[in-house]
Structures are given as structure tokens and as C-alpha cells.
């Protein structure tokens, strides 16, 4: 359970971990593992997950943990590591979420939406995927609204409605959730 006043990881990774004091807490798999290290120790975190991958090369959790550490360190190979985790576990909720956030960051909104949708199909209670999908819908709507043809305007409005529906479902599902 995160402390009352955590500093979330830099956007868009805030749902995947937080820092508190000098600790970095990564939620790799909420059912089995949480790694806590000093927040300045992203290299140590990456080394631990690299060792875990050497021990179990098929571990999508270890690949995802390595990718998150690489993202925190600003390493260029992080997207490839996320892709590797996605190949290992294409239906994994956490992997789909991180890949969706990565696609949003890259401006690939339709692909991001597909990843968030995959996460929701896998586990419809996974609340971060609701807000991620809503963000992808809104960004797609903004792109469509900028086009001059009539059909794009209607599609943009449909995307906005989809985003609003997801956000209302999120609010109704967890009324105490901030935002």
C-alpha cells in the first residue's frame, strides 16, 4: 500500500510505482512482488531484474521490471525491453498497460488504445487501464477534430463520448479515487 503522500513516478508511469523519501517502489505484479530500493538506485534495480532474467529468461515480470528501471533512468533501450516483455506475455495486464503508456508517449494513440483495451479485456477491474484508454480516446478525438471532413467530426465526438463513458465508469467503480 502506498504511503499517504507518495511522489508518483514521472508521467506517464505514475500508476506503476512511486517514490517516497529515498525509496523507489515498483509494482511489477501486485499479486506477487513489489521491489523497494533507494530511488537513486535505478542501476541497482535494473541489475536485479537483469539477474532475474538471466535466472528465468521467460519471466515477463522480470523483463517488465527491467524496462521500468530503464525508463526511470531514461535509457533508450527501455522501449525494446517493454516490447520483449509484451512478446513474452502478450495478455498480461501490467505489460499491456506499460506498452499502452509507451505508445501514448510515442503519439501512437490507436495502438495505445488497443493495448489499454487488451488490459481491460484481460481484467476489467484494472482501473489504470480505464484512464489510459480515456486518454487515448481523447487524443484520437483531438486528431480527428483537426480534420476538415464531416465524418471525422462525428468520429471525434464518438471518441469523446467513449472517453467520458470510461471516466464515469471509473468514478462509479471507485468513488474515492482522486481526479
Provide an overview of this structure.
The chain has 179 residues and is an alpha+beta fold. Helices cover 61% and strands 11% of the residues. It contains 7 helices and 4 strands. It has helices at 42-55, 60-73, 78-88, 93-106, 109-122, 127-145, 150-173, and strands at 7-8, 17-20, 23-29, 33-38. It has a 4-stranded antiparallel β-sheet, covered by helices on one side. β2 (17-20) and β3 form a beta hairpin. α1 (42-55) runs antiparallel to α2. Mean pLDDT is 79; it is low at 1-16, 18-22 and 27-34.
Distance between the termini: 19 Å
- Overall geometry comes to elongated
Give the tally of β-strands.
4
Helix content: 55-70%
- Sheet/helix structural class: alpha+beta
Set down the secondary structure blueprint:
Elements: E1 7-8, E2 17-20, E3 23-29, E4 33-38, H1 42-55, H2 60-73, H3 78-88, H4 93-106, H5 109-122, H6 127-145, H7 150-173
Antiparallel strand pairs: 1-2, 2-3, 3-4
Helix pairs in contact: 1-2, 2-3, 3-4, 4-5, 4-6, 5-6, 6-7
Features:
179 residues; alpha+beta; 4-stranded antiparallel beta sheet; elongated; disordered N terminus
Brief write-up:
By secondary structure, this protein is an alpha+beta fold. The chain has seven helices and four strands, in the order E-E-E-E-H-H-H-H-H-H-H. Strands 1-2-3-4 form a four-stranded antiparallel sheet, covered by helices on one side.
Amino acid at each position: 500500500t502506498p504511503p499517504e503522500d507518495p511522489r508518483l513516478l514521472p508521467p506517464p508511469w505514475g500508476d506503476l510505482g512511486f517514490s517516497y523519501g529515498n525509496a523507489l517502489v515498483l509494482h511489477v505484479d501486485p499479486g506477487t512482488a513489489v521491489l523497494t530500493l533507494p530511488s537513486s538506485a535505478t542501476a541497482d534495480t535494473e541489475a536485479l531484474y537483469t539477474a532475474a532474467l538471466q535466472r528465468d529468461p521467460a519471466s515477463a515480470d522480470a523483463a517488465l521490471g527491467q524496462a521500468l528501471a530503464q525508463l526511470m533512468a531514461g535509457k533508450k533501450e527501455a522501449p525494446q525491453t517493454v516490447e520483449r516483455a509484451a512478446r513474452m506475455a502478450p495478455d498480461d495486464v501490467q505489460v499491456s498497460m506499460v506498452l499502452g503508456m509507451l505508445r501514448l508517449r510515442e503519439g501512437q494513440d490507436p495502438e495505445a488504445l488497443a493495448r489499454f483495451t487488451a488490459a481491460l479485456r484481460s481484467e476489467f477491474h484494472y482501473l489504470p487501464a480505464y484512464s489510459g484508454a480515456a486518454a487515448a480516446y481523447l487524443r484520437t478525438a483531438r486528431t480527428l477534430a483537426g480534420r476538415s471532413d464531416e465524418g471525422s467530426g462525428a468520429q471525434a465526438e464518438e471518441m469523446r463520448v467513449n472517453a467520458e463513458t470510461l471516466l464515469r465508469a471509473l468514478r462509479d467503480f471507485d468513488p474515492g479515487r482522486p481526479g
